[in-house]
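Reviewer 2 asked us to include a model.

Predict the structure of this chain.
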Amino acid sequence: MIELGKINTLRVARSCDFGYYLDAQGKTTSEDILIPNSNIIGEIEVDDEIEVFIYKDSMDRPVATMKPVLAQVGEPAYLEVVDKSRIGSFVNIGLERDVLVPFKEAVYDLEVGKKYLFALYVDKTNRIAATTRVDKYLHDTTHYNVGEEIEGTVYGRHHNGNLIIALENTFRGIILKNEYFGDVKMGDVLKVRVKKYFDDGKIEVTARKPRLDEMGEMEEVIMNYLKKHGGSMTFNDKTNPDDIKKYFKCSKNGFKRALGALMKKGLIEQDVTGTKLK
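Predicted model (structure tokens):
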């Protein structure tokens, strides 16, 4: 059975002036699938078995290609939005035809030129389409070690501010709202560390660095800020946590630890007005 939107192994049945026909195992040869000359890599001959991706052309006919594609039906993939129209957005999967993301399948705004996590599916009209509703295509796992650093793509946000992230674009993860800083957007790729496993199979990860690394980096941020602002700032260990997060992308505890380290080193001093370089 031919699977649209996936890699299929098919036998080369016969040649023609503009390519070859592949045996689709239908009742008649009229069901055989064309692979145009432009879609062939290397040389093929009649009776060869070849691996091809099956899609539909502008005339809604099944077509095969040996060219590599960026996504297959049922698998999450990080794809670029290349156009928008009155019926939805379009993503590039490496073919001459881009794939439609219907408006109802985009759960957040899509920006042309930016990449997001999508999954391909076959719609009711038997065409390949794409969706941002990727959660059902992801999996749970326990093979990461606590503390292990990995990359993931942000694909959702809860009302409470927690982020949903696809680890290596394959496994479900969550970042609690106090475990990341800055304006994180859908489609952003983050480096995160595994914190723990939840009972429902999801993995809690953090975008924050280990405490000592975070403190060292924040010390440098504070020193640079002071140097750029004439050696003083109104921020100190009494500053509102929201202001610290806004300007320094850091928790108040992390900010206080960095201030304390800099004071021990004799580099800064504090008073009720703020913080100054010594």
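DSSP finds three helices and 18 strands in the chain. The chain has four domains: 7-65, 76-135, 138-206, 211-277. We have added this to the supplementary material.
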